[in-house]
Amino acid sequence: MHDNVVFNNKVLPYFLLAPQLVITLVFFIWPAGQALYQSFLIEDAFGFSREFVWLDNFIYLFSDDEYWNSIRVTFVFSGLVAFSGMAVALLLAAMADRVIKGATTYKTLLIWPYAVAPVVAAVIWWLMFNPSIGILAFLSWTLGHQWNHYVNANEAMAVVVIASAWKQISYNFIFFLAGMQAIPRSLIEAAAIDGSGPFKRFWQIVFPLLSPIAFFLLVVNVVYAFFETFGVIHATTLGGPGNATRTLVYKVYEDGFVGLDMGSSAAQSVILMILVITLTIIQFKFIERKVQY
Amino acid sequence: QTQIQFWHAMGGTLGDLTEGVVDGFNASQDDYHINASYRGNYNETMTGAIAAFRANEQPAIVQVYEVGTATMMSAEGAVYPMYQLMDEFSSGFDQSDYLASVTGYYADPNDNMLSFPFNSSTPVLYYNREAFEAAGLPDRGPRTWNEMEEFAETLMDAGYDCGFTTAWQSWVHLENLSARHDVPFATQANGFGGLDTELVFNDELQIRHVEKMGEWQQSGIFSYSGRTNEGSSKFYSQECAMYTESSAGYAGINANADFDFGVSELPYWDDMIDTPQNTIIGGATLWVLRGHDDATYEAVAAFFDYLTEPEVQAQWHMDTGYLPVTHASIAVTEDSGFYDENPGTDTSVRQMTAVEPTDNSRGIRLGNFPQIRGIIDESLESVWNGNATAEEALDRAVRRGNEQLRRFERAN
Amino acid sequence: MIENRPWLTAVRHLVLILGIIVIGLPIWIALVASTNTSASFVSGVMPMWFGEEGLNNFRRVLTNEGRVLGVGVSASWMMWNSFIMAMVIAIGKITISILSAFAIVYFRFPFRRTCFWMIFITLMLPVEVRILPTYEVVASLGMLNSYAGLTIPLIASATATFLFRQFFLSIPDSLAEAARIDGAGPMKFFKDILLPLSVNNIAALFVILFIYGWNQYLWPLLITTDENYYTIVMVIKRLMTAGEGNVPWNIIMTTTVLAMLPPVVVVLVMQKFFVRGLVEQEK
Amino acid sequence: MATVSLRNIKKTYSNGFKAIHNLNLEIEDGEMIVLVGPSGCGKSTSLRMVAGLEATSEGDLYIGDKRVNDLEPSERDIAMVFQNYALYPHMSVARNMGYGLKNQGLPRDEIRRKVEKAARVLEIEHLLDNKPKQLSGGQRQRVAMGRAIVRNPKVFLFDEPLSNLDAKLRVQMRIEIKRLQQEFATTAIYVTHDQVEAMTLADRLVVMNGGKVEQVGPPLDLYEKPETQFVAGFLGSPGMNFMPARIQGQALLVQGDHRIDLPDMAELAQWDGRDITFGVRPEHLEACSEAEADFHLKVDIIEPLGADTLLYGHLPGSDSLMIAEQPGKRRYTRGDVVPLRVDRERLHLFDAETEQRLNE
Amino acid sequence: MATVSLRNIKKTYSNGFKAIHNLNLEIEDGEMIVLVGPSGCGKSTSLRMVAGLEATSEGDLYIGDKRVNDLEPSERDIAMVFQNYALYPHMSVARNMGYGLKNQGLPRDEIRRKVEKAARVLEIEHLLDNKPKQLSGGQRQRVAMGRAIVRNPKVFLFDEPLSNLDAKLRVQMRIEIKRLQQEFATTAIYVTHDQVEAMTLADRLVVMNGGKVEQVGPPLDLYEKPETQFVAGFLGSPGMNFMPARIQGQALLVQGDHRIDLPDMAELAQWDGRDITFGVRPEHLEACSEAEADFHLKVDIIEPLGADTLLYGHLPGSDSLMIAEQPGKRRYTRGDVVPLRVDRERLHLFDAETEQRLNE
Ligand SMILES: Nc1ncnc2c1ncn2[C@@H]1O[C@H](COP(=O)(O)OP(=O)(O)OP(=O)(O)O)[C@@H](O)[C@H]1O
Ligand SMILES: Nc1ncnc2c1ncn2[C@@H]1O[C@H](COP(=O)(O)OP(=O)(O)OP(=O)(O)O)[C@@H](O)[C@H]1O
Ligand SMILES: O=P(O)(O)OC[C@H](O)CO
Ligand SMILES: [Mg+2]
Ligand SMILES: [Mg+2]
User: Is C8's Cβ below 8 Å from some Cβ in E?
Assistant: First the structure.
């Protein structure tokens, strides 16, 4: 217990905490409160008139198909990003785990995409899929499919998912690999003695032991897809075609900064905050559990 | 020297030309200096300026597209109406010199000009003359949509990937379509009559047109490429031989297309009307924002005066394809022989001024129009990709658009 | 070694190499594109091999020759802005977090829990979910178009505080006790013991936070209207939409390469710390 | 160089847990006191209160003549060796050892001189520039000792300083600590839960249990005359054999039917008929002739340790384990029945209820 | 249920390190062999080769009559208990124990039956549904044993299965393992570096050093007649005292001037004048009268262990440590000079150079 190690100083801790607390208060707590307040208002774009409308903004949102569509899009998008990024990473990690020669080289060559900004990744993939000149669109064309993400909703979704997941592969890979390397060798050996072959060992021993990490990554990836992929969408599909890729965060931005509908945007912020808090609590519950593991 | 912030949305070639005009003004005198800065597309520029206004960081001049007009008009505390500004700081301002069709769009009910019509455009059709020749088509654009279909099929038989593509789908294929056929886009004279307007563009004409476009998208006659003017690249690369785009597309096409092209009027449905109405204007105007000192406004007035000079106007018109907005500048252009040397360049002016505007062709003034554009874009896209029928999509767009109108009405 | 089957090893290498190719493809594309002319992107399939224009493109972008970037500032200036942003955020976050973690772990004081939870909450509220109000707060503080505005609101982070907290908790109590017996007060303990012990964590965090700061997109997009504060990442999107649909892919990709170069170099050079930092953040 | 007195010390943790009930202990100058007891009995708590790392809830604490309850650890003139050594990982051995002196403001070369002297005594001079992680467990232990020695404190405090070492090294370092403590003649309090360590190091042993002191005294006194069944069981390895018994005149009836006559034990008479626990250490069960036998042990397991042999088995008709330790020569096999005689001088009787010792 | 033969086994690791030089060992059916030796001597390597977890570089390995060099671990019919137990953390105790059987394709209820039987033997029936993390160290150890037992293998392999337990539990589990192995009469190879564990568990002991076997035999044989100085020093705690000596006629001159007459040792004559190492175990140095004394030990440190007392000291005029172990009764004080006599029957002579045993 850390109960022991205490320096007996009355004011010092407050000084130490002050910078963080001030910034938290000014840039987090205050805006969050502001968002809550604004979510009860309807304002004009310039902020000349405002009307207190109670929950109208929320009612409007939840009675709007568009909002529900956005929710659906967000979940589909996040699910796909998380799943595809994790699946590829798991495969690569499983391969890299037991490689002895060249392990560090492989690792180095696999982790750098983490450093690439989502928006940059998106722009490059967007080019590669460009229906007129993109190499991947061309490939798809040679396979008999006319790729056009400007029109085809699924294809647009595919591009933003790939661009977003691509960057996450490195992250997931690092965790899966660390997880696998933390599994005691003797466990694998025990399984070998118990008569299970390499594939069986992976699915029956290694994978279950990775499941806490997989769960952690799932949450992280979902949070990433929810909130950090704004740039991906903003730089490419702008939420389209139709409303096929308009995620919740993009919609907050669009309604707030493009539509200048402060009330609705604030209401959406409030909903998102509730969502993030829920996700974070889930994540923490889980981390607490894992500590005992 | 007074420094003035001027935010605009002119990228690419148009951006260079805009800088050129500004440089011209800066060079013409020593008292003021305009700092022009590109703020992204129309939408980004406008919303950026509003956000900046809320944060007290607004520029003196902001370029706002026609879609934002209602929003700007309703923000009385934020904008400095042009007529007042000129009244106070300029001597030579004469509203009557401006084309009525232009001032009509940007004036208050008392017909006072609220913003400066810097770059007004109207949609036209560009066609690839070399392609037309290769396909054995006449050297003119299709006059009607039916003819458009025929031409496109011929082009495709000749090996072209697509018949035509478009920029600004809502502007060209709904707003101007309605005006050209003298059909209302919204009630209350397309919104000029008051905030209690309602959208009505889900009528027979529009449904039919969109339905047809949807079919064309499937068959390749039409190729959708984006909400603003991303389609240009398909025209430049000769993937599509026809292109419905703003008259201001001229500058870019001129700079980027290494083939001969022609300009012709926007087609119409000849089985629905005999003579088409005028098209409506688009493009943008310059709004002056409040919150600056008199020196600044003096500079702004001087800048506007400079822009109104017939030579400046005419040059701008000839470089960009934007409409000349004063009678004097039209005369200057005609005198210069530009139209004769570049056949088709007068298309936009003719198309705009051919007939007397009606309530349905004067323009469109809707609150939350940027969002409504977005809604329309989405709905059209869902037709292009086959997820909805034209009727469904337009009904939906009207319904959701009306919600936006009501929200705007409530906020203002 | 159990089951040291050669074919299994071969499959492993094969899959890994394939993975590297697929993952590396985008960077290949970007590099190739940055060496070609814009004409190569008008029709046909984009170039897949290097062109001659590389030096030219980079020079034009870095100096913004002929306003290729469509803005009034050069890529080198924007990279400088990005660098400032990344550095200030990284160093600021580390400083603020290590101090607050120290307070939380090594002191007992009234409202300790409250403070802890308040910091914790920030973890839950990424900028993206509270865009408008945060923008308005920054605006009302007059911090638009300033380095302060670009950095300070992003400096408070629960993640870094948490990482340090976890690390401090993993330091045996006896170390602090030994220091107390050795006559070291709290700040002396912090300076003599805690700080030197944290260097690895600081380095690890630095990598991650540098990347975080460099890659910021939405925030600079919102709060800068003055070109002098543009960052390299945010300008790319602007290039995409400029120019009437004639997208200057070579210029965009040149900018893209410049935008990803510094963080990628940081990751590769500090790979060891980076991997540790990531994995430890989870704990 | 000081006495240490703990007078009516009590400790209640902030969560309300009473860790120490009432501790009284007078430690003489130069004496080595070992606190021993099972995990959680309050050994560390007691030590840490002396160090000043934990506040006392009640009572008075003196080092020398000074009441130190309210002094900071650094002002108490003590030095402490921790279980994990608590070396500063980023400092060299020399800086580790000198850190306390530096904080006292001593000049550099005096620090250097003192550190070198201590290092010489501990034979770690060649390691002075190394970092702790470059050292073996034993070497770290020495450095931790060095850090304590160099400050020349009034009292050494040790909290299980050897439990992170492997068995061989532990024995070796145990001797080293004993040697050093004798050399410096510094008062020392040593905490361990290992009874062998406790027995071998202590001048006086304090056996604790559940926050209370069970018995205090020189190790062999406690070994030979444990006041409670707890102390009897705690000291010695393998542990004492305990069996339920009943006193019947001048004899014990162990486990119902094994009769042990004790004609010489005069006190026995007064407890006639009483239920007791009978205790005998394995080494006090000697193999004997059939005729002399008190018990017959059926051997299950034989552990030849070289010098001695341990026999694990049970009495016929009983389940409970009995252990006997025999000197080395004879070899046994599994299943042997060995007649054993209890050393009459070395048996222990405890009240079955209070678990207090009965016989002298 | 099988013999195990290691014939000319060699192991060179992929980095070129020769871990095992030439290992020959014939293990009988039902025998418990303990491999013991210092860290890094190749014990685990040998064991893992038998398990099939490590390939042999040369030589033949037989289990029963079958050459198993090229068989997978699962095909060798062995079971192994790991130092860290290697329990599958995500499976219940029952599933852990049954996993091997499941892979053999046994029907569910037969698995259940076997698991329950093994659990009963180990007294962990009540834990069958628990996850490993819910178990104490000792319980985990039992489960690991159970997993081995349940498969009824031909050979049990243990790699330091007790070193993660604390001292008390270690003793207890040691007895348990011995009991189980005796009960199942399964051939077993047990690796440890703890000589007490080795002595007490082994039917035969294999002492290894630097990749080679030093000596093989029953524990007490090795203890009493170590073939090499290494074995002599490795077994026994505290370790044997070694002193340089020279043979002079029928006597030894130990450390120059301590004369020990050995009139009965006939062989001595043949080594006249030779330099040797003289070894005697602490327990074979008995306190005696002045007249009988071979050595006079000046006592530095006394360790009363209860049953015995250890005396650490040195001979006057010498620096090297000497340890004597005395049975418990007498009390010593520091500085005592104790006359000691070497047990003539139990002394050890080693060639000073080859370190091989000389006397019978
Ligand atoms: N900070 C604390 N808060 C509450 N209870 C505590 C605290 N520290 C120790 N305890 C409790 O006080 C009792 C005594 O603890 P202490 O550390 O003194 O035991 P110990 O005898 O040193 O045991 P060990 O041999 O395991 O070190 C234990 O029951 C422990 O759980
Ligand atoms: N995979 C390997 N590659 C190279 N050398 C190895 C490998 N495994 C072990 N060794 C070396 O082989 C020698 C014998 O190792 P082994 O594990 O058998 O020792 P051990 O006797 O079990 O020691 P310990 O008691 O420490 O477990 C050691 O020197 C070790 O460093
Ligand atoms: O391209 P522009 O400038 O003519 O503008 C086209 C439309 O009016 C935008 O709404
Ligand atoms: Mg303790
Ligand atoms: Mg080993």
Answer: no
**What is the C-alpha separation between A249 and D19, in angstroms, rounded?**
54
Mutating to test ligand 1, I would choose from D21, D44, D82 the residue with most ligand atoms within 8 A of its C-beta, which is D44
Partner C, chain E 230-289, Cβ-Cβ below 8 Å? none
Atom nearest to B122 CA in ligand 3: 4
Q: Is B126 helix (H, G, I), strand (E, B) or coil?
A: strand
Tokens 């003119």 label which residue? B140
DSSP string, E315-349: -TT--SEEEEEEESS----TT-EEEEEE-GGGEEE
Closest-CA residue of D relative to E38 is: D168
C-beta atoms surrounding C113 within 10 Å: 9
> CA A264, A266, A272: angle at the middle one, nearest 5?
105
Model-level pTM? Answer: 0.86
Residues 6+ apart with CB under 8 A from B260: B128, B129, B130
CB contact under 8 A, C23 and A19: no
Question: Where on the phi/psi map is residue A208: left (φ > 0), alpha (ψ -120 to 50), or beta?
Answer: alpha
CB B148 within 8 A of CB B163: yes
* C-alpha E177 to ligand 2 mean position (Å): 25
Which ligand has the nearest atom to the CA of E212? 2
- Give the pLDDT confidence of C151-179 residue by residue, as tens digits: 998 887 777 888 888 889 888 888 999 99
CATH of domain A65-292: 1.10.3720.10
CA of E193 to the centre of ligand 5 (A): 8
Strands E204-209 and D212-217: unpaired
- Digit-by-digit pLDDT tens for chain B (412 residues) are 889 999 998 887 888 889 899 999 999 999 999 999 888 888 888 888 888 888 888 899 999 999 999 889 888 889 999 999 999 998 878 888 888 878 888 888 888 899 999 999 999 999 999 999 999 999 999 999 999 999 999 999 998 888 999 999 999 999 999 999 999 999 999 998 888 999 999 999 999 999 999 999 999 899 998 888 888 888 988 889 999 999 988 888 888 888 999 999 999 999 889 889 989 889 999 999 999 999 999 999 999 999 999 999 999 999 998 988 888 998 999 898 888 888 888 888 888 888 888 889 888 999 889 889 989 998 999 999 888 999 999 999 999 999 989 988 887 7
Q: Number of residue pairs across B and C with CB atoms under 8 Å?
A: 82
- Atom of ligand 1 at shortest range from CA of D35: 21
Q: Give the tokens for residue B252.
A: 């870019």
The ranges assigned to domains in chain E are 4-234, 241-351
Q: Do chains D and C touch (3 or more CB pairs under 8 A)?
A: yes
Give every CB contact of residue A223 below 8 A, 6+ residues apart in sequence. A276, A279, A280, A283
Q: What CATH class has D4-234? A: alpha beta
Query: Chains B vs C: touching, with 3+ CB pairs under 8 Å?
Result: yes
The CA distance from C98 to C160, in Å, is: 8
Q: Which atom of ligand 1 is nearest to the CA of A4?
A: 1
Which chains contact E through at least 3 pairs of Cβ atoms less than 8 Å apart?
A, C, D
E251-254 and E241-248 strand pairing: antiparallel
Which chains are within 8 Å of D by 3+ CB pairs? A, C, E
What number is the ipTM of this complex?
0.84
Coil, helix or strand at residue D152: coil
Rounded to whole angstroms, the Cα distance separating E100 from E147 reads 8
Residue spans of the domains in chain A: they are: 65-292
Which domains are seen in chain C, by residue range? Answer: 75-282 (1.10.3720.10)
**Partner residue opposite C242 with nearest CB, options B11, B225, B251:** B11
Q: Please, what sign has the CA dihedral across residues E246, E247, E248, E253?
A: positive
Question: What CATH code is assigned to E241-351?
Answer: 2.40.50.140
List the single best residue of A3, A7, A36, A92 to mutate versus C (max C Cβ within 10 A): A7
